[in-house]
Amino acid sequence: MLMNMKDILAVAKENKFALPAFNISDYSMFLGIMEVCEETNSPVIIEIHPDELSFIGSEMVTAIKEKAYKSPIPVCIHLDHCSDFGKIMWAIQSGFTSVMFDGAELPFEENIAGTKKVIEAAHPVNVSVEAELGTIGTTDPDEMEGGAAEIIYTDPEDAFKFIAETGVDTLAVAIGTCHGLYPAGMKPELKLDILKEIASKVDIPLVLHGGSNNPDKEIGESVTLGINKINISSDIKAAYFEKMREVLEDKSLREPNVIEPECMKAMKEVAKHKLELFQTIGKADLY
Length: 287
What we know:
Elements: H1 5-15, E1 19-23, H2 27-39, E2 44-48, H3 50-56, H4 58-70, E3 75-82, H5 85-94, E4 98-101, H6 108-122, E5 128-133, E6 137-138, H7 156-166, E7 170-173, E8 178-179, H8 192-201, E9 206-208, H9 216-224, E10 227-232, H10 234-247, H11 256-277
Helix pairs in contact: 2-11, 7-8, 10-11
């Protein structure tokens, strides 16, 4: 059940739940995410950052597509944060069903123009487009997904104008989240009042980036206020590789099929919690 973002999120918006977009750059991690989503009958977005795509190659995207075609659950394959038009075209040609044009740090009119250029290429081949307005913070300047030193919150009036002028399928909004894991002493605080105002002015699904390591209460409330896609990267990777470090304390281990299942299990526990929090479990029946 391979779908594009527009179609998979239309159901989420109508039924007031959110889909996790799990960032994947390893095939065992991908298999673990598919397992937990199939076990819980949950639709899912498999998200790949351009740096991850360069690492895994387009051949792995082909394998992800084949798995999605055979899966009983809806699956979308999405290119995360990308401002390079050439890489976006490569992703479309590789089989992605959704792409993100990241023009958040451009002047407003240039962000509109860049988004429209991507839409003109993507929509004719049934590929959805996500854009971003405002800036997501960062907990680490070296974080792969980037992020700004200062959060610029999304202006609700700008969101309305941006959507009207571009025809974008989904919009990532900045309401106070950061990419990465929060260090001790740094407390995230989402401005849910801004989200509520944006949701009252627009009629497309809204996206929350930097969904890892935030308080469950605020993330859960964001779903009730109009967020339909939440990006999760650091939380699942931390669970996977923390378990791997623990497993590899046994220096005799060397076979991936012995080492990785425990890592997948730890990651699946975190992923299942996200599915519960986003009210995604069982929702594959709605498609």
